[in-house]
Amino acid sequence: MAETPLRVLVLAPTPFFADRGCHVRILEEARAAMAQGAQLRLVTYHIGRDIPGIPTDRIPRIPWYRKLGAGPSWHKPYLDLLLLWKAWRVAKTFKPHLIHAHLHEGAFFGAILKRILGIPMLFDCQGSLTGEITDHGFVKEGSLLQRFFAGLESWINNSSDFIVTSATPTVELLVSDGVPRERLAPLIDGVDTSVFAPKTKEDIRRRLGLPTDRPVVSYLGLLNSYQGVDLLLQAAADLKTQGARIHFLVMGFPEERYIEMACDLGIEDIVTFTGRVPYDEAPLYLCAGDLAVSPKISLTEANGKLFNYMACGLATVAFDTPVNREILGEAGYYAKLGDVASLSGAIGRVAGDRELREELGHLGRERAIREHSWEARGKALVAIYKSLSHGDTENF
Q1: Across the strands, what pairs with 334?
Q2: What angle is formed at CA 105 by the lines to CA 11 and CA 12, rounded to 5 degrees?
Q3: For residue 5, is the peptide bond before it cis, meaning its omega torsion is within 30 degrees of 0?
Q4: Contact 308, 280 (CB under 8 A)
Q5: What is the pLDDT of residue 71?
Q6: CA-based radius of gyration for the chain
Q7: Rounded to an integer, what distance in angstroms lies between the CA atom of residue 396 and that of residue 387?
Q8: Less Cβ crowding at N or C end of the chain, within 10 Å?
Q9: Which pLDDT does position 1 carry in this prediction?
Q10: Tally: H helices and E strands in the chain
Q11: pTM for the whole thing?
Q12: pLDDT < 50 positions in the chain
């Protein structure tokens, strides 16, 4: 008799899909799990783009909430209550074997829903909740509100039946916070190396009006200080002052503040902003560059853009953090965390050495193919699903 397919209710408390990192992980995990035979229903916010092939259910329309970017919002509590209600309605007919909850909000409401449904919950943790809201300036370091969120985060972690993390260092962070190691496993991001692959530069450079007489540095991701975009533009200004002939291709949203910042720094002539880039066009846009940069400043959160950079064969500059080292290994060129002078020096070094760029790009592409395929991640994820549904996670 054929084995009954696993039915998984996916909670995504975010405006899925919105062409940004967290959403890419949700999407690619869903695709990878479905390729291994799992059946999924994804419950998400009212806004975002439907993705063909991903069964998606949305909360009722809230006309005044249109935020697609990352970061906390005081609107989220009532949106997440609507998500809980919608997920319960979907579960009545879908009859899931388990819940896969993304982000801390998803795991909070998943912890409630799992008790109602009597099924286990997998928490997909992409970093520290308290660290994120502090880094985003939502709460102040050491404040009463920060301590409240730290307590809430601990409750969420301990209410989950199993936790997968998007980076191995996050496992150690959770162990230090009291989560038993046997309920944790890293499941770092991956990349489809048949889609994200080196491509010719000429057509896309012509379309974007990029110069052809100097190296182009690509950045693709959300534009905010948490991702280090302020530091990137300051590094570009340093390089211009030093006389370096380098151009920067900054891709993502929201771009208005950074266009103004580039003008204030006097670098508008060496920076091209594209605005939002659809995920299915990201490989083409990335390959307009000669190297790529990720100045993200978090010590614990995943950095999914690095996988795409590597798969496209781009030499990559990033800050020296455990997460970035885990992903890039010897294929990365590292700058001191948060140091603008170090960042500009690293970009200038790689941009000015064609042989180094080619070597790092080749190493990155090989590493992406060898170690970071979504097929392997899908097999690991479905194995965890099966163990959870059978009440056995001792092997993880």
Answers
A1: 318
A2: 25
A3: no
A4: no
A5: 66
A6: 21
A7: 9
A8: N
A9: 40
A10: 15, 13
A11: 0.80
A12: 1
Which two three-digit tokens encode residue 314?
């781009």
- The residue behind tokens 């097999």 is 379
Residue 167 has what pLDDT? Answer: 87
CA distance 339 to 231: 8
Helix, strand, coil share (%) of the chain residues, nearest 5? 45, 15, 35
Separation between Cα atoms, residue 142 and residue 95, nearest integer Å: 43
Looking up tokens 């035979």, which residue turns up?
A: 37
Nearest-10 crossing angle of helices 21-35, 374-389: 70
Length, in residues, of the chain: 396
Query: How far is the first Cα of the chain from the last one, in angstroms, to the nearest whole number?
Result: 28
- Identify whether 17 is preceded by a cis peptide bond (ω within 30 of 0): yes
Handedness of CA 376, 382, 387, 393 (dihedral sign): positive
DSSP state of 373: B
Beta partners for 248?
217, 271
Structure-token pair, residue 139: 């709460």
Q: Decide: 332 and 319 in contact? Cβ < 8 Å.
A: no
Summarize pLDDT for 259-306 with one digit per residue, the tens: 999 999 999 999 999 999 999 999 999 999 999 999 999 877 789 999
Alpha carbons 213 and 298: distance in angstroms, whole number: 34
pLDDT for position 21: 78
Q: Are strands 247-251 and 271-275 parallel, antiparallel or unpaired?
A: parallel
